[in-house]
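In this supplementary section we document a worked example of the pipeline. Step one takes a protein sequence of length 293 as its only input; no multiple sequence alignment statistics are reported here. Step two produces a three-dimensional model, which step three serialises into structure tokens for compact storage. The input and output of this example are shown verbatim.
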Amino acid sequence: MHTVAFPNKILPYLLLAPQIVLTIVFFFWPASQALYQSMVRQDPFGLKSSFVGLANFRNVLTDPSYIHALQVTVVFSLLTALVSMGVALLLATAADKVVRGQGFYRTLLIWPYAVAPAVAGMLWLFMFNPAMGTLAYLLRRNGVSWDPLLNGDQAMALVVVAAAWKQISYNFLFFVAGLQAIPKSLIEAASIDGARGNRRFWTIVFPLLAPTTFFLLVVNTVYAFFDTFGIIHSVTGGGPAKATETLVYKVYNDGFVNLNLGSSAAQSVILMIIVIALTAFQFRFVEKRVHYG
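The serialised model returned by step three reads:
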């Protein structure tokens, strides 16, 4: 057995240097600045500041509006992940059965992922706008009092659908890849043994998709917490009456709109801790139920 020795000792570090620089500049430096700003109180113009320690964190965690934003975020994240993953799995299983035109259908289903979040939000807003939306008109015509600009539950439903629609394509790609990786001999053996339809899917196919499902659960959780800002900003602006104000949108509101920089920085640190803890929890407990082939 021969060992491979890399002759140049400096080149590996040079190859890694761009990624290290990007990580430091765009992750570690902003994170350190957020941590510093979360412990100071400064005026809106940044002319003077005073160290207040953990006072910003205490104020945030005892603020009823922040607790409300946390509750909204939990509901929004769960609904977005369930809808996007459920619909993507349904579409992936349907596309996997198509014999003719597989590539065409898969390409159509992948396209929405290329749409920017803000654009995706505006598309759904135009369709369901109570003043001009075509689908809003159809809902009202069929007796549904549709007005997401005034009804908080309807606004939440609208942003969940928009955020889930944006993420379905991403989930679809991975579910299709997972389905293609399942040996056809297992499906044929299950069919011979009498497993049909839903029973075969839930007892044979879905357990084999467990690694893919777990990965997408983690990705969709992070997506719902961070990447849906553009959708919420363009569709509801956090309203009505803060019914769709998630944690990341509250960070923006307090920091960039109300210019409460210390509170906004403290919220960003808490949000980062929540996502890290949630991801660690998923890897610690949820992954135990995942079986890798």
